Amino acid sequence: MHPVGFSAEPAPPKIGLSTSLPTQGIFRAAHPPPLAFSSDQIEQLHRRFKQLSGDQPTIRKENFNNVPDLELNPIRSKIVRAFFDNRNLRKGSSGLADEINFEDFLTIMSYFRPIDTTMDEEQVQLCRKEKLRFLFHMYDSDSDGRITLEEYRNVVEELLSGNPHIEKESARSIADGAMMEAASVCVGQMEPDQVYEGITFDDFLKIWQGIDIETKMHVRFLNMETIALCH
Amino acid sequence: MSGRGAPGCSRGLQLALLLVPLLVLGVLPRARAFEEQPGSAHGESQGFQVVTFKWHHVQEPYIIALWILVASLAKIGFHLSHKVTSVVPESALLIVLGLVLGGIVWAADHIASFTLTPTAFFFYLLPPIVLDAGYFMPNRLFFGNLGTILLYAVIGTVWNAATTGLSLYGVFCSGLMGDLNIGLLDFLLFGSLIAAVDPVAVLAVFEEVHVNEVLFIIVFGESLLNDAVTVVLYNVFESFVTLGGDKVTGVDCVKGIVSFFVVSLGGTLVGVIFAFLLSLVTRFTKHVRIIEPGFVFIISYLSYLTSEMLSLSAILAITFCGICCQKYVKANISEQSATTVRYTMKMLASGAETIIFMFLGISAVNPLIWKWNTAFVLLTLVFISVYRAIGVVLQTWVLNRYRMVQLEIIDQVVMSYGGLRGAVAFALVVLLDEKKVKERNLFVSTTIIVVFFTVIFQGLTIKPLVQWLKVKRSEHREPKLNEKLHGRAFDHILSAIEDISGQIGHNYLRDKWSNFDRKFLSKILMRKSAQKSRDRILNVFHELNLKDAISYVAEGERRGSLAFIRSPSTDNMVNVDFSTPRPSTVEASVSYLLRENVSAVCLDMQSLEQRRRSIRDTEDMVTHHTLQQYLYKPRQEYKHLYSRHELTPNEDEKQDKEIFHRTMRKRLESFKSAKLGIGQNKKAAKLYKRERAQKRRNSSIPNGKLPLESPVHNFTINEKDLELSDPEEAPDYGAEAGGGIEFLANITQDATATDSPSGIDNPVFSPDEDLGILSRVPPWLSPGETVVPSQRARVQIPCSPGNFHRLAPFRLSTKSVDSFLQADGPEEQPHTTLPESTHM
Predict the structure, then answer these.
(1) Which end of chain A is more exposed for a tag (fewer CB within 10 A), N or C?
(2) Which secondary structure element, helix H or strand E, spans residue B386, and what is its range?
(3) Are B289 and B336 a contacting pair, CB within 8 Å?
(4) What residues does the Cation/H+ exchanger transmembrane domain cover (chain B) (predicted)?
(5) 3-state SS string for B95-154
């Protein structure tokens, strides 16, 4: 088991984006083409961004309090945090940003772009990895490159916090069980004095193997009429 | 259903099975003839007869039962040969069988006495199949693709009906079909009944093909939901035909369209209402567990009949009844009831399906209904296939602009090809009135041909087609805890992103619905206790634990030693995790039983190991044998009694829970320390190892000689090992428990400080404990005796250790075995593997 720190990983390609793009033409992302938005979508997102920020150039954490629907979300804090995570913003290997501008906002949103059918296998893999990395960062709250048991428990407790009947202990035992499962999936057999310290990103990829994340992790950035009807 | 039977043998059996119905059928007419005489002689009083032959008295149910028997036997026959069933779908085989049987009946009787009547089909055979489909519908998948399904079901069916009917009419006008007494409306009527994809046929064929779930749900969902369209089209055109073509006004057409909405929405509404009712009823069935499963069937069936009564779509009603109630019912009813419902439903559905296909075959053997018109039959076949394909391509083209997961060309091919027609069409066409529809017989025969063609030919070829096209298959995976957790996290993230980006999307709707469900619906429809345990993640956790446990127990049984499975000292040990979500042992007695098995599983493994070992060591064997004889019994009896009163362990519940909480806390603690205190751990492990090695060297007394020496000592060890150091427990189980535990301790004495069933709290994981444990290890316990599935034992266990990951520890090793073996002296048994012991 070789834990791989994030610093060792190649830095994710940054979306090519000049500062004042929002309202002009097609938004061309140089690097991962799947992450590109159309101009319509950018306009729409920009409108939303301004709405959230109250016409300020940046969004702070507090701004997310204005989204009423978010309040019911059990992992709300984790999600909001992900927006300010430097790793997700591709600005560094750890730490949180105080505020994000529209460009950053788009960067985060771009993790949720659906995968294009025209992409080849390699691009799909890349896209998949990007998406998973986002998720991984959410679990790995201390940016040390692994999801420790404590972190995992944390997430599970939050996830299950929506159900008032589930006690903390059961949430923890579930996390423990999941961790054991992860260990058995990723490491298999271990030395007796070896301790599974946490899920590294590589392990994370292994766990997700065979799960169709590309078809799951996306939000349709379109008009809502069409969404309500179809998948 | 494996191809176990040798081919020759199976052929013989099949022949025999075919002969049985022949004989029966040969006898029946004669029996009927024979029965006539006593019937006529009945008038004269003959005094009291000791034995009377009352065939008439039982005739109808008797014949029905016989037919069901024949169909079921035939099914056995088919599955004797794996080769046949892997190539030919069962539905096709049944149709052929039906044809053969029909031929025999005809030969004997010269009247088609047995046919598939619409009444029997719609009232008794179809509901179980549709209910089964609804009740086991993967809801999320279904609603996720609802838009697509609806489009195919509504537009697709209308398209098929219209194009088929119109094209046939066009050809008819060209004079190719010769002279037929048919009008445009008749053609449209025929088109509407032949257009609908049949749920029974689709299910029968697709279940064997295993295409990916999205494709399956689309085709299958379409076949279920198109019923409303079919019913409306059929009714509308039938009434138009009755009215006569020239009297149909525009108002009638509008009425037809309106009636579509009424029929479909009304049927759905009826289903939802009955689902609500059903969920509500099952909430209060706590004291009538036995009839609990009955409610599911009766109320669902009532929903079917009610909407039939209101001339709404009955299929939609029962489908949605199943879909909507499944969550609440499954949470409310006990596990036994759930199993009963599951099996009964499957049995009814598959029985009904069998009968339907067989009778489709039988019904075809009736010269009276056959009217052949080559052009009509062939063109119908061509048109339904071609228009289905065109319709699918057009609709998919539209859909793909909105769908996240695109439907590829291959999917479209399978969807077009999977448009099977079946018994619904047949029943509808038989329902037609010959006075109104002049060419009824032509329609009937064409429908039969179409059904046979699609079921037999397309059913036969769809499997190779799917293979050839390399359609993404469905993969059956074990549910994984991580998967479920991540999936849950995903849902929340997606809905949050939609919230943040201001979209109202699929995730948004789902999120809002689940909030609504949690806040209101679940509170009304679910038991208090069920509300706790209904979380899917918990369920998966539960399932996985059960699975592990069952395989452990099965393994134990296979090896013939279940002796130690029922040891209360380990109750609540391993599987404790879901005694919180399912606190009521009264309710979930099966799970409770299972849980008990589960919890003692590791002990079982130990004992197994012990047994194997003791065979080598005669002295040991004798001692253990004695122990088993004298010490085990009370425990077993106690246990037996306990499980018999499985429904009333109320007084123990509190205590169990208490124990659970304590052990759980401890377990978590140790896990935590193992997880976080890495360095500490390693040190502990090393220390532990060293000590162990030392002890190994020191210990020269074979353990078998001293098992009776110090029960108290043993008991403490056992307690420690199993992390059941709850002081209350020993007194609780009292004297009778003492023997068993002591014995267990003896059996597992070798487990010393190491064996912990839960796998987490081994000394290495809980460094603070192991010194204490070690110090308590009596010197006479040879470390070589540390019991745990040894390397070899593990190899022999069919399931790999990986399967046991939740019960088993995650620090399994192979390497250290060797070093250990080397270190050990001659007293070491070759198969003992100490290092693993740390983990089991």
Answers:
(1) N
(2) helix B374-399
(3) yes
(4) 68-468
(5) HHHHHHHHHHHHHHHCCCCCCCCHHHHHHHHHHHHHHHHHHCCCHHHHHHCHHHHHHHHH
Q: Are B417 and B447 in contact (CB under 8 A)?
A: no
Under 8 Å between Cβ of B708 and B749? no
Rounded to the nearest 10°, the torsion over CA A39, A40, A43, A45 is -110
Contacts of A183 in chain B (CB under 8 A): 805, 810
Interchain proximity A74–B492, CB inside 8 Å? yes
Q: Is B838 touching A (CB cutoff 8 A)? A: yes
Give the model confidence (pLDDT) of A8-54 as tens digits: 334 444 444 434 444 333 343 334 444 456 777 777 778 878 877 78
Q: Residue B55 is which amino acid? A: W
CB contact under 8 A, A180 and B802: no
On chain B, the residues whose CB falls within 8 A of the CB of A177 are: 481, 541, 544-545, 577, 806
Q: Which residues of B36-59 are buried (b: 16+ CB within 10 A; e: fewer)?
A: eeeeeeeeeeeeeeeeeeeeeeee
Which pLDDT does position A78 carry in this prediction? 80
Q: What b/e string do you get for A65-96 counting C-beta neighbours within 10 Å, with b at 16 or more?
A: eebebbebbbbbebbbbbbbbbbbbeeeeeee
CA distance A128 to chain B (A): 14
CA distance B758 to B724: 11
| Among B residues 747-786, those touching chain A with beta carbons less than 8 Å apart | 759-760, 764
pLDDT digits over B724-759, tens only? 334 443 343 333 433 434 444 444 444 333 343 444
Taken in order B2, B8, B13, B19, is the CA torsion positive or negative?
positive
- Output the pLDDT for position B373: 83
Query: Under 8 Å CB-to-CB from B181, ≥6 apart: which residues?
Result: B438, B439
Nearest alpha-carbon partner for B365 in B114, B707, B565, B537: B114
Residues of A in contact with B535 (CB under 8 A): 160, 163, 166
**Which residue does chain B place closest to A170, by CA atoms?**
B577
ipTM over 0.95: no
Q: What is the tens place of the pLDDT at every residue in B476-491? A: 666 677 777 777 777 7
pLDDT in tens, B107-134: 887 776 778 888 889 999 999 999 998 9
CA distances in angstroms from B262 to B149, B188, B255, B625, listed in the order given: 19, 21, 10, 75
The amino acid at residue B89 is: P
Task: Give the model's pLDDT for residue B669.
Answer: 58
| pLDDT (tens digit per residue) in A65-122 | 777 777 777 777 888 888 888 887 777 777 777 788 888 888 887 777 766 666 677 7
User: Which residues in chain A have their CB less than 8 angstroms from residue B661's CB?
Assistant: 169
What is the maximum alpha-carbon separation in chain B?
107
Q: End-to-end CA distance of chain A: give it in Å, rounded.
A: 40
Low-confidence ranges of chain B (pLDDT < 50): 1-43, 564-619, 622-623, 626-653, 672, 675-689, 691, 693-840
Q: Which residues 130-189 on chain A approach chain B with CB closer than 8 angstroms?
A: 135, 138, 148-150, 155-156, 159-160, 162-163, 165-167, 169-170, 172-174, 176-185, 187-189
CB pairs under 8 A between A and B: 243
- Shortest alpha-carbon distance between residue B258 and chain A (Å): 21
Distance from CA of A181 to the nearest CA of B (A): 6
CB < 8 Å to A64, chain B: 500
pLDDT tens digit string along B67-102?
889 888 988 888 888 888 888 888 888 999 999 988
The answer for B 493-532 residues in CB contact with A (under 8 A) is 493-509, 511-512, 515, 518, 531-532
